[in-house]
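Re: the request from the purification team.
They wanted to know what the chain is likely to look like in 3D before they choose a buffer screen. I agreed to run a prediction and write the result into the notebook, where they can find it.
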Amino acid sequence: MSEHSVPLERQKWMYETMVKIRHYEETMVQVYTEGKTPVFNIGAGTVPGEMHLASGQEPAAVGICAHLTPEDTVTAPHRPHHIAIAKGVHLDRMTAEIFGKVSGLGKGKGGHMHLFDPGVKFSCSGIVGAGIPQAAGAALACKMKKQNQVAVAFAGEGAANSGAFHEALNLAALWKLPLILVIEDNRYGISVPKEVSTAVKSNAVRGSAYDIPGYHVEENDPLEMYRVSEEAVDRARKGKGPCLIEIETYRLLGHFQGDPELYREKDEVAGLKEKDPIMRLRQHLLNQGVQSNVLDTMETRVRQAVDQAYDFARDSEYPDAEAALEDVFAPSIQ
């Protein structure tokens, strides 16, 4: 764990939020299988569609969201729950949206990969790299309106090989936009290892191609992610332009729920569990004198909030036939 100074209250917030994310994802593992066949989780079930969970990737989200306000824009990829929770997306309505319920953020029409909460300026897209240009557009709006806000785009390491990554970084650097691009290097693009798909060991070096800073965070370290993000956000707010952050992170689950993970060795997953960032941060807090009962209370509080969100989603109504078509078609242009 990084030795760089991070305010204790921020460390406690990060720990509490990481526990919240983990409990949310672990609960979804169970809920998602309801009503589905065991192989590849086929069938509508309680939660329809594919499901991509982020257990293990919590540090990437909390490290930078600790520096953001509801007025800062964040875009996420198809694995979005950890980022949404860290950004402060309404948990009950987010869960209802994933369940396809009318009380959801998008009235049940967007689902797990298309969450949108304008109250905290959060959105996500199921298409690889699609959120990067959107965040660049938000950063451009901030600059044109002379607002002291930033935009953050999250993407996987595979998205760093897409055109959207390079096009957005080029314009952001050219126009000195307050854009921060966070690459979550979880080692696999679906089932393809990074070393056979990407020519550089760290995508952080790609920042030099656009004359912007590139930061690399090792070992899924939430405190180092906090320190690097503090510098990046401060730089963007001061009008010094964009930057790129890549964090070495680990997904403890497959690319999607039901993924047989034939491309991963069992001992690899076991080794990642031994590096659990939540347990490492908990021990770090204990070493600083935080009492275990304080941490236990925090854990209980967030687990209750997550359980309440799932109860809210279960108790909500599905849209009827008429409601299902509301807000789907654009009004006619007169």
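For the purification team: The two ends are 60 Å apart (CA to CA).
Please add any questions underneath this entry.
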